[in-house]
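Technical note accompanying the year-one report. For the benefit of new consortium partners, we illustrate the data format agreed upon in the data management plan: each record pairs a sequence with a structure-token string. No post-processing was applied to the example shown here.
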Amino acid sequence: MRRLLYFLLIGVLLLPLVNCGGSRHGVDEKYFLIAANVKLPYWQQVSAGLAKAAAQLGVKATLVGPDTYDIKAQHNQFLNVLKQKPTGILVSASDPNLLKDDIDAAIAQGVPVVTLDSDAPASKRLTFIGTDNYRAGVMGARLAARQLKFRGTVVVYSMPEQNNLAERLRGYQDVFETYPQIKIAEVIDLKGDPRIAFDKTTELIDKGAREEAFVCLVSFACPEVAEVLERKRVTGKVVVAMDTDDGTLEGIRKGLISATIGQKPYTMAFFGLKMLDDLHHHPLPSPARNWSQDSFSPIPTFVDTGATLIDQGNVDQFIRERDTATRK
């Protein structure tokens, strides 16, 4: 009997230690990733990375946002998420000026906010996780310049209000400025609508425009460009895409798209959720502090997840790796 009591006492004493070794997460923890145009394939890769990290951590994480490109709807979605008292927020800022006050309000309430994919640098967000978009633009511009043999006219498809796209364009412009015979004829504002890319490319081809290259700074544009070129049986154009939509990859396989710059959306979400989780369990002493100007900040200002140039030489390998990583 005395021996039984001894073991029961030891068990009681060890119970807190056992619990400490278990999950540190509470049932009320809930994280959100707020995107824009969530039906795009790009955000499906984001969703896969988010789900993988959530499963490893044992937390709830939800991807939310409008089904089409709608910056006001994303703003309203952010306000709705904040009402739910989230544990942390990841957000891709489609309009950094519009979302700045939303992000600052969340930080003021003690909710950690990390931007990914597209930054809001003037806000109080804690960290930006994503591509070095200027370097991505430089990468694409160098490829385009080589394929143009350093002379030709270029059309660019973009959305000027997005900070990440503006940085990509700056990278292209800086490289092209070193080659006086390469000129950007026009920067087309897609307004979030792939039909504009299709219609504008059709118009250019039908009127016999002399543009030798098409550069897409947003994922959904170059599949539309490639479709027009295929329908019109136009060859010899340099087409540099962005991201890894199925249409883009198929365009590379067919030789309609020269190459694409593949970001790492899966990595952005995977790493972003783990950072938010750590910020929740090890909170900063003052979240509203300007940590980017602090030489001893415990968090980085920017995490570059990298980019990969994908062409006919490695497109099939990329598809195999993507399918393995996103398989449920």
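Partners are asked to follow this layout when depositing records. The two ends are 52 Å apart (CA to CA).
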